[in-house]
Structures are given as C-alpha cells and as structure tokens.
Amino acid sequence: MSVVIAFANQKGGVGKTTTTVSVAAGAAERGVRVLLVDADPQANSTSALGCRPDGGSLYEVLAGRRRGADAVVATASPLLSLLPASGDLAGAAVELVAQTSREHRLRLALEGVRADYDLILIDCPPSLGLLTVNALVAADQVIVPVQCEYLALEGLGQLARTIELVRANLNPGLELLGVVLTMFDARTKLGRQVQQEVRRHFDSTFETAIPRSVRLAEAPSHGQPIQIYDRRSPGALAYESLVDELLGRLRLP
Amino acid sequence: MSVVIAFANQKGGVGKTTTTVSVAAGAAERGVRVLLVDADPQANSTSALGCRPDGGSLYEVLAGRRRGADAVVATASPLLSLLPASGDLAGAAVELVAQTSREHRLRLALEGVRADYDLILIDCPPSLGLLTVNALVAADQVIVPVQCEYLALEGLGQLARTIELVRANLNPGLELLGVVLTMFDARTKLGRQVQQEVRRHFDSTFETAIPRSVRLAEAPSHGQPIQIYDRRSPGALAYESLVDELLGRLRLP
Ligand SMILES: Nc1ncnc2c1ncn2[C@@H]1O[C@H](COP(=O)(O)OP(=O)(O)OP(=O)(O)O)[C@@H](O)[C@H]1O
Ligand SMILES: Nc1ncnc2c1ncn2[C@@H]1O[C@H](COP(=O)(O)OP(=O)(O)OP(=O)(O)O)[C@@H](O)[C@H]1O
Ligand SMILES: [Mg+2]
Ligand SMILES: [Mg+2]
C-alpha cells in the first residue's frame, strides 16, 4: 500500500520541484518504489528528470482520455517512475472547473496505480488552484517547502487555511507531514530569523535544512537528480539526510 | 495618458514582485505619477509597500462591486499609489470564468483611473491563468523578469506563446517591452550561461542585470522599497539604472 505526498506551496520558486525530485531519487536509491507525478504545467520535474513531456501526460489522464498507468514513463533511476506534465495542463485548470468531481480527478486516476508503488510524490504548481487542490485531495500527507526568505513566510497562513479547507470538505485524512526549510543561508540574519520563525510556528519542521547550493540549480540543466549530478555537494548531502528523516517518519524501509 | 505595463512570468520566484515594486518606487522618485496594481492573491507587492490588504481590494473591483478609483490607497512614496490585492483574489480566478468579458475586467476597471497616472504597473501571479490574462489584456507593454537559472529559461517559450495568443485574440496593441535578468551571479558558470542564452534569444533584454543582493530580500520585511530601505546597496543601484533605461524606452520624463 503506498503513501501519497503532495509538495505544495503557492509561493513561487521556494524549491517544490527541487525537493520533490531530490526526495524521489533519494528514496528510489534506498530500494523504495517511487512514482513522481508532475502536476505543474511548467513540467519542471519532468525535465529535471531528463524526460520530455511528449506523449500522454497528466492532462489526458485528468481529462479521462488515458489511464494513469498508460501515461507513466521510466526514468534513469530504476525504481523511480514518472507521470509527466505538459504545457496543455495549464488549460486543465479552466476546463475541469465545469466537470463533475473536478477536485477528485487525480485521486481517482491514481487509484489504478497505487498498488505498484511504495511512495507517490506530487509536485504542485505555485498556486492554490484546481491542480493543487486535486493533489491535496489525492494525497495522504503534505510537505511544504519554505524558502528562508521573508516573502515566503507571508503565504504560510493562506496555505495552512487551504489545507484545512481540503481536510474539512474533501479529504479528511490529509495531514501536514512537515515543513522543509530550503535555500537556507546561515550567514545571513534574514535566513536565521526566518528559520527560527518557521520552527516556532510549525513543530513538524524537519531537522534537516537544505542549504543554498549552486549545484542544485545546475542539476536540472543536465536532466539529472542531484544524487546523480553531484552526490558529494552540500545540497545532495542535505537531501540524503532529509530522505532518512522522511522515511523514518513514514516508517518505510 | 498613461502607459500600462504588466510584469509577468509563470515561473515562480523570479523577481516579479521585487522588480515591480523597485521600478514603481524608482519612477515615483523621479516625478512620475505611478499606480502599482497587485494582481497576485499572495499580495506580496501590497505588503512590500507596507500596506495591509484590509479594505477593498482588486477582488471587489474585478467582481464589479467597487470602482477602481475607490480601492486605490496611498503609500509612503508621495507619487506612488497602490491598488492592493487580498487573499480572496484567489477565488476570482475561478469565479470570473463564467462571467461575461472575463478577460477584460481589469482593463475596464483601469479605464476610470488611467488619466490620473503616467505609469500603471501590474504585478502578476506565477501562473498563466485568468488573473495574468486580465493583466495582459489591460497592458500596453509586458516586462518579463527572468531569474538567471536553468528552470527559469524553460518556461520562456510558453510565456512567449501566451503573449502572442493574447495579442492575436484579445489585445492587438500588446508589446514585449523587454526581459529583465534578475538574481544574476556573475561568479557562477550557470549565471553567465543563462544570461548569454537570454540575451541571444531576446534582443529586447535590458542592459541592466539585477545582481543577487540580500538587502533586496530583506526590504519587504520592513515594508519598504529598496530605495528607502538601503539606497546604496548593489540591488538598489541596479534598479536605479534599470529605471533610467526603462523610462528612456518609454520616452517618459
Ligand atoms: N537549495 C538550493 N540551492 C540553490 N538553488 C536552488 C535550491 N533549491 C532550488 N534551487 C533553484 O532555485 C530555483 C527555484 O527552485 P524550484 O524551481 O525547485 O522551486 P519551485 O517552488 O518548484 O518553483 P515554482 O514555484 O516555479 O514551481 C530553481 O532554479 C532551482 O534550481
Ligand atoms: N536580486 C535579488 N537578490 C536577492 N534576492 C532577491 C532578488 N530579487 C528577489 N529576491 C528575493 O527572492 C524571492 C523571490 O522574489 P519575488 O518574490 O520578487 O519573485 P516573484 O516572481 O514575485 O515570486 P512569485 O512567483 O511567488 O510571485 C523573494 O524572497 C525576494 O525577496
Ligand atoms: Mg516547481
Ligand atoms: Mg510575486
């Protein structure tokens, strides 16, 4: 039986894609069977894993034209599979509005594949629209990446309210698994202040904070997760420690 | 007669808010009458200018319940006014879908205030949904902030196609004024490569590249534009030079 985790935060550029891809690759390396679902029309997770969103993508699955299992593709990591996104997913947010059970489409689509994976990770777009709501309805847990900067703090209240709304109306089992601090620069007062603020408000914040590391920003241009691109970089080491913490919380192997 | 400029890019965290606020404050200091419209439900421009989105906001204007002029508030800069955003703006994207002339609501709302300003700047959310389309329909020009990182490059094609679609179907006068390179770190190979790539593809790229500067990230927590928070920082000096270039291109005073 698999655990489904959504990586969500409407604030842009906080490390949602980098965290989803790095955790997915790290867990797959430890023998966990992982499916990464790219629910962002930017398709950044898809390209960060070296895949092209050319064939069927999540859009056709949400529109009911293709089964989830038929859209899944392999990646360079043996135990990591991908359900890719494509640009037309941007249209889904408007087209789905008038459909029945519009918030449940992703959950229903994943029913057919859950048995094949231990972990299903969903990369969300930077908004609280229908695609993110679909991810929160499909998910058992939510991980919130937070960049250690002031503007990223501001949106956390809005995000917490949205998670609560989804829990109350659409998915009673949804839980906040934890907050992940990203792009943390301990040399700046701002970084230290934001870290303290986040840890004070969210007891579920992971111990591991991800440092700012240019190798993490380079890896997507090579279509490789950080573990393959530069395993010894500070970013890779931090994500390894995060994966250990995360699998510990899930009591996975 | 005013010029309306939308600051748009669906990639998150590339510096849309920071650029809109810094250009608005810089132009106001030079005697230009400026209105900043915050079209992002995160309301980051609103808080970066030290305002609270408590009274009427853009949401009520788009819903037709309040005139644009009645929602405008003053800021600490005498010639800079703000049309604030609020959290309920997130609902507008779904609610407006079924309304008539849903893409023209912002343009119609600004008709009543255009005469009062020389420059109207619109901060967009990180998506290509209805709020961004409204901004592109209301605008005469578009400025695209691009972070000097690989993933920010990926989305430029999608954005260019969206601008073209809006020009072809909704706003024939819309033009790309230019691309602004942000968070540029000349010390990294990635930064230099992305800069070269952007300048090669977009001749309208501004000469001024904005360096990564922590003072820019600190300024919003004080509710002040960079010109007030730390006028001598590298970020402030770069935005001063960008404002000179921009006003030159617009042939404004
Ligand atoms: N720890 C880090 N150190 C340095 N750069 C990072 C780090 N994490 C992410 N980045 C880079 O910062 C940028 C933003 O990260 P990313 O795209 O993962 O955020 P996101 O939240 O998924 O963005 P969006 O809101 O657009 O989906 C990317 O260019 C990425 O490569
Ligand atoms: N040149 C810069 N140097 C350092 N930090 C910067 C710079 N420009 C912006 N920032 C910081 O980077 C983060 C992202 O910038 P900003 O919020 O302006 O981007 P955005 O595109 O408006 O994001 P969103 O997509 O969420 O609307 C913010 O924390 C901001 O303070
Ligand atoms: Mg992303
Ligand atoms: Mg913004």
What would you say this structure looks like, in words?
The structure is a homodimer of 253-residue chains. The first copy, chain A, is α/β, with parallel strands linked by helices and 253 residues long. Chain A is built from 13 helices and seven strands. Chain A has helices at 16-29, 44-48, 58-62, 68-71, 89-95, 105-111, 130-138, 150-154, 156-169, 189-201, 214-218, 226-229, 234-250, and strands spanning 3-7, 34-38, 73-74, 80-83, 119-123, 141-147, 175-182. In chain A, helix 1 packs across helix 13 (234-250) and helix 6 (105-111) packs across helix 7 (130-138). The structure holds adenosine-5'-triphosphate (ATP) (2 copies) and magnesium ion (MG) (2 copies). The site of one magnesium ion has 5 residues of chain B, from helix 1.
The shape of chain A, in one word, is globular
Provide the spatial order of strands within the biggest beta sheet of chain A: 3-4-2-5-1-6-7
In terms of quaternary structure, the protein is homodimer
Tell me which protein chains meet in the greatest interface and how many residues each side has: A-B, 39 and 39 residues
- Uncertain residue segments of chain A: none
Number of strands of chain A: 7
Q: Report the order of strands and helices of chain A.
A: EHEHHHEEHHEHEHHEHHHH
Q: Which ions and ligands are bound to the chains?
A: adenosine-5'-triphosphate, magnesium ion
Termini separation of chain A (Å)? 13 Å
Look at the helices and sheets of chain A and give the structural class.
Answer: alpha/beta
* Largest beta-sheet details of chain A: 7 strands, mixed
Our estimate of the beta-strand percent of chain A is 5-15%
Global mean pLDDT of chain A:
95
Radius of gyration based on Cα positions of chain A? 17 Å
Percent of residues of chain A in helical segments? 40-55%
Helical region count of chain A?
A: 13
